[in-house]
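Tokens as discussed.
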């Protein structure tokens, strides 16, 4: 209560001036109350002193005015009024009081108050003038009749010595005040430019000082801030959860009560305009030597409203992102640049069968069935390359493999630095199964089509010799001529041989296509194999075209199956013999190219049309639909399959009317291995 009654005006910013104003306020309040109660006693005890009520009332009124002035920024007027009131009290009492002059001179002691007041509140010039006035008044008694010289001398010495000490004190006080003002000005300038809001609160919680930043943050003027306490309801302080932040729990109040500093306390206050501002507050206690409780607390605070707004926006964005993250039907994984899992949504947990904690302890290598490819994709992303969605297989906790579609991207920060990888993974097992079923169905359809085609072509190939056998057998049964019977029997044997060869070639083709043909790889001399085929052809027929063989003497051996290679060469040569007239020429040559050996069969037959070239290696294919062309349509497919089994290929060049060239190309041993 007394502290509030003596709090100086908020317009007084200097701490020294505020102390003086507080002292004057306290003195005037106490003296005024004393005068108010002492005046009636004075009037009662001095009934002959008729001026006593007026003097007492005037003094009490003066102290009231002095008190009121001490609560304003013009408190020095109150000091002047107190000095004048004291002088008037002394003079009026000295003149009007009854009794001998010597008794009335006792009131001169009050003159000391004027010197003391001046030395406390005013400068040394005023103090010297008042001291001189006191000495003059006391010295005048040497010239008043009836006043003993010794009595006047004692008053003179007393009233001269005390003002002299007051003058010396005023001089020293001026020097001290000057240094103190300079120091205070330095600290005030620092106090003013500090970017934090700062207030000084006394023991009762009243704010005694504040800087400009505090005014800006709180939205109040200095007059509105000074004198206000933490318990003032106008702060409308709230906590982060929206509950009221009572004044007793403010950081400064806790510091003032306990003496312990408070740091980083978050408080929301409403400005006069109704705006909610969030503050981060620190409170530091101030102690006097030897005391355990602080006499004041310095509170600093910063406006973190913008930070709180960003935090709310970030939290809202995180909630929205988390909602999308968890609600999407696809699995979402966040991985570090090193391939370690950072987070996964619930769909990802369900997809893999691991708990979220288990996933966070794993790496891409532990879940991906294609580790190296995953690492390459990560490197491509970090290099700035965009990777389109791709399909992969991942491992589940139960060991099963899951077919997934992955869309992965590199997430960067605002400065473009890589942060982490984010992958959206979709289970396409059903889609893959449907696709596999479609593929298998298409494969089965193709197999059935090929089988049907094969049966159709095979039946056609068998139907022709069977028809010949049937008609010849019918004629054979109706002739008695022995020579005719022999001719017809020979025709039947030829057709049976043709069918036997067809069956053998079909069996061989089936083995080659199904991989049942057993091949033994040994060094093979191709020149020797070709010569063997030529000799076999020359022995089997006498009216073949001329066969010329130009072999490469240094032809290296190749790794292969001699029997199968002879079969392939035989089929190519048979094809040339079939379409080359007797007067024609078939040239067989061998040679070596880079990492390759080749066998070339060139004929001078009728050639192959350009439209027919893509079909010559098809099973049962012949260029005429009626199959009047000699052959079974299996020789070239068998030859190509054997060559391909040896890692080679068959090249064909042909021009109608000029002949054809078949070139078998096989890998040399070092390349084949």
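Sequence:
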């Amino acid at each position: 209560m007394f502290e509030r009654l003596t709090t100086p005006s908020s317009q007084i910013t200097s701490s020294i001036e505020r102390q003086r104003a507080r002292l004057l306020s306290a003195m005037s309040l106490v003296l005024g109350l004393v005068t108010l109660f002492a005046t009636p006693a004075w009037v009662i005890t001095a009934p002959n002193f008729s001026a006593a009520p007026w003097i007492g009332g005037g003094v009490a009124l003066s102290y009231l005015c002095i008190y009121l002035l001490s609560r304003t920024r013009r408190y020095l007027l109150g000091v002047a009024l107190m000095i004048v009131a004291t002088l008037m009290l002394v003079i009026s009492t000295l003149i009007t009081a009854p009794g001998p002059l010597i008794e009335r001179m006792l009131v001169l002691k009050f003159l000391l108050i004027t010197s003391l007041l001046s030395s406390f509140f005013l400068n040394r010039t005023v103090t010297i003038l008042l001291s001189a006035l006191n000495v003059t008044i006391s010295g005048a008694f040497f010239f008043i009749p009836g006043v003993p010289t010794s009595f006047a001398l004692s008053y003179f010495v007393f009233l001269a010595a005390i003002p002299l000490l007051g003058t010396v004190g005023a001089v020293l006080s001026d020097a001290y005040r000057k240094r103190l003002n300079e120091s205070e000005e330095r600290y005030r300038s620092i106090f003013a430019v500090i970017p934090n809001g700062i207030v000084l609160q006394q023991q009762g919680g009243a704010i005694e000082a504040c800087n400009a930043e505090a005014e800006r943050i709180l939205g109040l003027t200095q007059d509105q801030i000074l004198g206000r306490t933490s318990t003032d309801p106008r702060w409308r302080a709230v906590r982060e959860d929206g509950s009221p932040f009572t004044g007793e729990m403010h950081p400064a109040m806790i510091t003032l009560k306990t003496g312990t500093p408070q740091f980083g306390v978050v408080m929301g206050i409403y400005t006069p305009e109704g705006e909610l501002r969030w503050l981060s507050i620190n409170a530091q206690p101030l102690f006097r030597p030897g005391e355990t409780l602080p006499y004041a607390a310095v509170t600093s605070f910063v406006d973190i409203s913008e930070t709180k707004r960003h935090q709310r926006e970030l939290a809202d964005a995180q909630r929205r992102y988390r909602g999308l993250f968890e609600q999407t039907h696809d699995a979402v994984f966040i991985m570090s640049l090193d391939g370690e899992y950072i987070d996964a949504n619930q769909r990802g947990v369900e997809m893999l069968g691991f708990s979220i904690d288990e996933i966070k302890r794993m790496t891409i290598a532990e879940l991906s069935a294609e580790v190296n490819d995953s690492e390459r994709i990560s490197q491509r992303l970090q290099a700035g390359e965009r990777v389109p969605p791709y399909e992969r297989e991942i491992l589940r906790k139960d060991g099963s493999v899951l077919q997934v579609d992955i869309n992965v991207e590199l997430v960067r920060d605002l400065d473009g630095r890589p942060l982490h990888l984010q992958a959206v993974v979709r289970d396409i097992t059903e889609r893959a199964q449907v696709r596999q079923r479609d593929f298998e169905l298409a494969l089965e359809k193709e197999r059935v089509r090929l089988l049907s085609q094969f049966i159709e072509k095979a039946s056609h190939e068998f139907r022709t010799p069977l028809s010949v056998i049937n008609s010849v057998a019918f004629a054979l049964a109706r002739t008695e001529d022995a020579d005719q019977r022999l001719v017809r029997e020979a025709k039947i044997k030829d057709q049976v041989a043709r069918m036997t060869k067809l069956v053998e070639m079909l069996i061989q083709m089936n083995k080659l296509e199904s991989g049942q043909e057993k091949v033994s790889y040994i060094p093979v001399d191709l020149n020797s194999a070709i010569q063997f085929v030529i000799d076999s052809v020359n022995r089997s027929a006498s009216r073949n075209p001329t066969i010329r063989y130009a072999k490469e003497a240094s032809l290296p051996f190749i790794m292969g199956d001699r029997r199968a290679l002879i079969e392939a060469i035989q089929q190519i040569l048979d094809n040339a013999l079939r379409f080359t007239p007797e007067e024609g020429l078939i040239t067989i040559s061998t040679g070596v190219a880079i990492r390759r050996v080749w066998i070339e069969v060139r004929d001078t037959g009728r050639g192959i049309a350009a439209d027919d070239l893509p079909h010559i290696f098809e099973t049962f294919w012949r260029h005429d639909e009626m199959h009047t062309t000699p052959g079974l349509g299996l020789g070239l497919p068998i030859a190509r399959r054997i060559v391909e089994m040896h890692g080679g290929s068959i090249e064909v060049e042909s021009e109608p009317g000029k002949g054809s060239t078949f070139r078998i190309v096989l890998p040399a041993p070092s390349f084949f291995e």
